[in-house]
Amino acid sequence: MSNQYSLEELQENLDKQLAWRKKELSLIAGNINSSKEEILNTLIRAGIPLLYAHWEGYIKIAAREYLSYLNAQNCKVSELQDNFLVLHLKKTIIDVKQSNKATKFATLLDKINNQDNECFKVKQMDSDIISTESNLKFNVLKEILFSLGLEVKKFELKRHFIDRKLLKTRNEIAHGEYKDLVDKGNDDQAKHDFEELYHIILELMDEFKEQIIDAGLKKSYLKISS
Length: 226
Prior knowledge:
Blueprint: H1 7-33, H2 37-72, H3 82-99, H4 102-113, H5 138-148, H6 153-156, H7 159-174, H8 187-218
Helix pairs in contact: 1-2, 1-8, 2-7, 2-8, 3-4
Organism: Bacillus thuringiensis serovar yosoo
Domain RiboL-PSP-HEPN: 17-213
Protein name: RiboL-PSP-HEPN domain-containing protein
């Protein structure tokens, strides 16, 4: 089994991707905490789209890094959990659906029949493999988690924050709607609401990273894991 991409390298890459995002977000969070009234409202309006951008960006990049790691392990498809078989076949299935040609069906059948001999390889940068749909709501995230064999529970508990507090507000701002996020005379509540959302989203990004590293460490991507 090849280890061209080690677990240590995977962790280092995920940590680096998370570190600069946290640094940038901490700067705007600090400015929000020290601002008031109209400036506070403007900074929160800027902060939520930035928070969303890092949320979507990190999940997408971390997922693709994990698939790069798995590609490098040269595991047989038959050795992996079924969710990875789905990923391995996904592009071929999509091609079959789009073309409806008999030769495409034959290619799919050949892949299925020869999975015992095929190594797991996916084009991790392909949007058909990992897609956030440019709107990383909970249901989209759940599909990514399933594809990677990761647990959904902790993310589901924060579904309201993902879908309503983050994504809905970001979309309203990004689509040019005026949304006053600070009630007059209630700066402290607005600061609290942003800080709560900020910490929850960072916790979920950390959770995503930790699940990937744990899966790599325990080799839980295998049908018989350590």
